[in-house]
Amino acid sequence: MKINTLRLSALALVAAGCMGFAGQAAAESIVGGAVNANGTVQGSPTSYTVSHPSTGRYILTFTSAITPNAECIFQGIGAAVRVAGLGESSTTCDVTFAKTTKTGAAVDTLFNFIAVNAGP
Fold first, then answer.
1. What band does 21 get if pLDDT is binned at 50, 70 and 90?
2. How far apart are CA 113 and CA 94, in angstroms?
3. Quick one: which H or E segment has residue 12?
């Protein structure tokens, strides 16, 4: 229950545009921000980088590990997008977005994210 409350509160902050924590060190066990559809980051965060290797896929790499494991929460911004794939570790979050249509094709999208410590 505590994790769900944290998820909702943190996601609400990100969605509301409260990005004050976006540049904080990952050692604090919370990293968040906004990423453009082309994979460029909004603002000048020092706690993560983003690569965009293919349509709909984004890999966030944290400059400091979030231990024991990052739990990543994404909110795609745009018409009919969903998270179609997600991989999480202490140093990365690998996400793929897709359309919510019948075909479910991968799609680039603007998104907000938050990564929190998934430990006990």
1. very low
2. 12
3. helix 2-15
Give residue 83's pLDDT: 95
* Fold assignment, 2-117: Immunoglobulin-like (2.60.40)
Q: Which residue has the tokens 């996601």?
A: 11
**Quick one: pLDDT at residue 39?**
97
Radius of gyration of the chain (CA): 13
Kindly report whether the peptide bond that precedes residue 68 is cis, defined as omega within 30 degrees of 0: yes
Q: Where are the domains of the chain?
A: 2-117
- Is the pLDDT score of 23 beyond 50? no
3-state SS class at 54:
strand
